[in-house]
Amino acid sequence: MIIVLKPNSTVEQIDHIVTTIHEMGLKTDVSRGIKRTIIGVIGEEDLLRNAPLQAIPGVEEVVPILKPYKLASREYQPDDSVIDVGRGVKVGGGSLAMIAGPCAIEGREILLEIAKHVKAAGANILRGGAYKPRTSPYSFQGLGEDGLKILREVGDELEMPVVTEVMDPRQVALVDRYTDIFQIGARNMQNFNLLAEVGQTKRPVLLKRGMSATVVDLLMSAEYILAGGNKRVILCERGIRSFDSSTRNLLDLSIVPSAKGLSHLPLIVDPSHATGRPDLIPSMSLAAVAAGADGVHIEVHSCPERAMSDGPQALLPKQYAEVVEQMRQVAGLFHKTIPVAHGK
Amino acid sequence: MIIVLKPNSTVEQIDHIVTTIHEMGLKTDVSRGIKRTIIGVIGEEDLLRNAPLQAIPGVEEVVPILKPYKLASREYQPDDSVIDVGRGVKVGGGSLAMIAGPCAIEGREILLEIAKHVKAAGANILRGGAYKPRTSPYSFQGLGEDGLKILREVGDELEMPVVTEVMDPRQVALVDRYTDIFQIGARNMQNFNLLAEVGQTKRPVLLKRGMSATVVDLLMSAEYILAGGNKRVILCERGIRSFDSSTRNLLDLSIVPSAKGLSHLPLIVDPSHATGRPDLIPSMSLAAVAAGADGVHIEVHSCPERAMSDGPQALLPKQYAEVVEQMRQVAGLFHKTIPVAHGK
Amino acid sequence: MIIVLKPNSTVEQIDHIVTTIHEMGLKTDVSRGIKRTIIGVIGEEDLLRNAPLQAIPGVEEVVPILKPYKLASREYQPDDSVIDVGRGVKVGGGSLAMIAGPCAIEGREILLEIAKHVKAAGANILRGGAYKPRTSPYSFQGLGEDGLKILREVGDELEMPVVTEVMDPRQVALVDRYTDIFQIGARNMQNFNLLAEVGQTKRPVLLKRGMSATVVDLLMSAEYILAGGNKRVILCERGIRSFDSSTRNLLDLSIVPSAKGLSHLPLIVDPSHATGRPDLIPSMSLAAVAAGADGVHIEVHSCPERAMSDGPQALLPKQYAEVVEQMRQVAGLFHKTIPVAHGK
Amino acid sequence: MIIVLKPNSTVEQIDHIVTTIHEMGLKTDVSRGIKRTIIGVIGEEDLLRNAPLQAIPGVEEVVPILKPYKLASREYQPDDSVIDVGRGVKVGGGSLAMIAGPCAIEGREILLEIAKHVKAAGANILRGGAYKPRTSPYSFQGLGEDGLKILREVGDELEMPVVTEVMDPRQVALVDRYTDIFQIGARNMQNFNLLAEVGQTKRPVLLKRGMSATVVDLLMSAEYILAGGNKRVILCERGIRSFDSSTRNLLDLSIVPSAKGLSHLPLIVDPSHATGRPDLIPSMSLAAVAAGADGVHIEVHSCPERAMSDGPQALLPKQYAEVVEQMRQVAGLFHKTIPVAHGK
């Protein structure tokens, strides 16, 4: 940590700062420049991070040097994490997750129909929401445990691992009985108690980036899960808030190389929620694979105009099959493959 | 709701759209222009809101007309809500909430010292965090129930109502035993299960705006609480994410007249979290009162450089007393007053 | 300037960096921490600013310490600049600019009518656009020199200084013959050749903040004008781009204390362009004065529904008179006054 | 255009609105719903666009239906524009522009060295700045006409078309003598007089997206050039302002399919300015090609640490050669090719 002092800081102020830092059990390295005095602060990471150095009179700026996350960092683990989600499907290290399915679980028949389509097209993880975080209290909120049962049955029947959202720490034990992967939605990326709760389980967690989260914020939220003992976190970019209302959110593909440079965790991309527009999803899926993403998450519905949630942004099964075929070709250029889900 | 069709939409598409809408139990009003056909959709609000009209082929744009919130709207209740938070303190309708205190409850003595200062300065609600939503799992997370007990005792001793954050639906019953007002933090503004849980209680709720929430998003989250039966919601602006890193967040004072135009709920402003800079807090507090806010929330600490959380953004008690005095004068111009907390 | 090296930087890399810096005529101060080596770079500001230190292998981060602007800074001039714009009107140092008038100059009669209204209400500077930066090439582009003549005549008749936008370096000499103050619009805040051109004149310049400009960007653009020899720059906040489309732009009032802390230049606020909504302009004007702004710029039109540009955001003369009266009261609390324009 | 009235609008207000619209030479179609009255307005596009309907009492919202740009739209020209920039290089319609070179022209020898490298790697257009829009008036501003001469000579020697920025309407005639393509920088995207000036020439124009421009804003700026008679506009995405400071700007690849859906103009991507980070440029270049971009613009310097401008974001020639080879493979999947510049 580096402390930059104000141009007019006095000798008394400098002495007070140095004394205060020493009282915290930290060491100092004072460097006097022509116009400014700068103090390097050396010591334990955690002490440093919580010290309110900015509040000391005479301090102009505090520049952190050490990264605030540890278990999520490349320094801690140089090699890519590869997450085994079951049924022969691995995420990371050259294996691409192809997550597909409807926004919400609406019933057994319709889910089975959609699941057959996406499996045939190449999807290797089935998605579907039983608990839906809806902006309006009056919108369809999901089928709850009935939905979870349907998802489990359809996943088993088609031999696909399944992923579903958990919104509440009180739901974790229940959802854990049915799902292969927990999803933490964008709105809950900083619901720290929920993160801590799934950190206590042994299931992989698909952690979606919040709408105004920086790459560091995302890695800090992953750190909550990792610090609880659960090492199986998959990051997911799904668009951030921006000023152009022509897309639902703004897909930030630069986070793919950026997060993967900082962290060993796999990262997948969700162009469905990012753009909200079926006409943009295919090209953004291809771009995601070319950018180095470890998978793509796409909402698919066989009858979007009757979907109970987010219908307008779903691809038709036929469109999905085409884009998977193209993603496979792009992936091939980089020697990556799409595993086939099967068996137990 | 208005449906704008694509320029080249066919008669078959128009018929299909009209039929689909009728099957949903809604009525249509078709208007053919020179270049476009437009369909007005008429019917029950809730049916309309959930209909995936955008997904029907031939539709270019769906323009919602009715507001998605109801109980929070001025149409539903034209007069300002005035929230009685106890000990003679009302928020709204000309009475200003002056919420002050440290970021975190650190101990009985220090809280009592700070509370005495802020009460003497004119604060009428005492704040302090017992559960802290920290970005890092390694930062100080708050004293928990011990902190709640201290807050209650100090509030009682100084005859001030108290407000503290609740982060988890499982904490609601516990926090309810100690606090006068629940705070929902910015990161939990769309933690819908938590909103529903405090909506079941009878305590006032201070609902902070999320970092990327629009004014409509904020009112929709208030609607979750109101729909549960709890009518006592106080909105709070605390800054949004923006591109200039010279302040912690970007204070959006235009939401004061904007939200109060759309809704009857009171709205207060928190310049401490919005700016993160003590040098900007006084002028932003005055601006908030001039803009019509129903109160101001300021973090105060008697020794910011030793605070366990957010020390750098706290005002000193002396600075706080000065700004309250100035706010009182600005409020006087608009015939508003700052109630004094007292008695039971 | 501080250079933070990568954790694994080698002795050879450190030597190379130090040698490179010395070759640039700069001095170094190397400090080796437990995990990182940090190099302080000392020397001439301009050399430092242009040195591509980030590109040297082994460098992780370059932290600038010195501010990139000089003439605009409080360090260069501690006291507030007070800009005399003529006819007894000063801006800054306790004197508030009240700039009002229509978006575009549409004709002599209508401008005179509006000008009489705003002067009677307390406005002391008359605005009107003769060259309009319109998003569409098919929109009304302004009356050009005919408009300038009308503005000059009306200003003279009512004894008010006038301000009008200049969009092109080639227009500067012409506009200079008619106006008292040049306005540089938000879209041209980084039109550096235009800034340099008005920097060669002796007229005050009203410099509007660009839609995505930080406070430092704004001060750097002011520096272009100051560096040309023209010391009379008035900054203007007029809203930035953000994600909530309920207002045209997002008014950032925190830039008032922030910019005035960094710079001696006066700063006024334009709530008309910032919000685009007449219902929000009065409260945002009062908030601007309470925040410490040196003036407020408001569009006024006697018949908004027939205005040729930006009619929807204009206040009516009666509304303007009311808000000026209220601003006068808020200003009085801070011992500030609104000068009356008169004479020559 | 659709006018939505306020819920409580009176019959007199509706009559006034209808009369006012008729006086503008437009027709109306009034539709009374249960809660709202809606008026469709029909007529000439240009009349509609400039009518201040929002300002009429009783109006809640005005919803534009017709797009504000015309010549740039797919409706006007359904087939992709293919721009011939000389020496056998076409942009659009399956031909990719590979623009490369240093940020600034620094001298003949160094430019020739870099140009040989990038040509050998596959670049087909040479870039270099002679007029540099620098944030600071004290930074290197470019070599001016001397730089233009060098660029022309090196382009001719290597048989490559060249592109260089023009910042000022007064420079257009001069730059026109030396360049094959004008570049309009992001900061000048809404410098409408400059757009009009290059619209009068016959040279292709590379129009960069402003830092806070929506896709519609970008197309409107293209419309200024097209409306002047110059049909050869190439759009360029180069990143927008966002809240995460870990990249210089935020690359928005979704604008590739979005803009190409709305417009026939080709669009290329500049990951150098968008990210400002050499470690992210290769993957973002591949993603751009996979997303359907018509070319990629990359800054290359043979000695970034001695570059006079933007050194830290330049790729080394070797890195550039590798990424072009990979882009060629991705392009091949979509049956696109990279033309080789040659001859006259």
Provide a descriptive summary of the structure in words.
4 copies of one chain form a homotetramer. Helices cover 33% and strands 18% of the residues of chain A. The model of chain A has no long low-confidence stretch (mean pLDDT 92). In chain A, the strands form 3 sheets. In chain A, strands 13-12-11-10-9-8-7-14 form an 8-stranded parallel sheet. Chain A folds into 2 domains: 62 residues, 2-Layer Sandwich (Alpha-Beta Plaits), CATH 3.30.70.1140; 251 residues, Alpha-Beta Barrel (TIM Barrel). In chain A, β5 and β6 form a beta hairpin. Chain A has 344 residues and is of the alpha/beta class. Chain A is elongated. Chains in contact: A-B, A-C, A-D, B-C, B-D, C-D.
H/E series of chain A:
EHEEHEEEEHEHEHEHEHEHEHHEH
This entry's quaternary arrangement is: homotetramer
Please report the two chains with the greatest interface, counting residues with C-beta closer than 8 angstroms to the partner's C-beta.
C-D, 51 and 50 residues
CATH homologous superfamily (4th level) name of the largest domain in chain A: Aldolase class I
Q: Helix tally of chain A? A: 11
User: Which outline of chain A best applies?
Assistant: elongated
Fraction of residues in H or I helices of chain A: 25-40%
Per CATH, the architecture of the largest domain in chain A is Alpha-Beta Barrel
Count of domains of chain A: 2
Major sheet attributes of chain A: 8 strands, parallel
CATH topology assignment of the largest domain in chain A:
TIM Barrel
Q: Mean of the pLDDT scores of chain A?
A: 92
What order do the strands of the largest sheet of chain A run in, or round the barrel if closed? 13-12-11-10-9-8-7-14
Low-confidence stretches of chain A: none
- End-to-end Cα distance of chain A: 50 Å
Roughly how many Å is the radius of gyration of chain A?
Answer: 23 Å
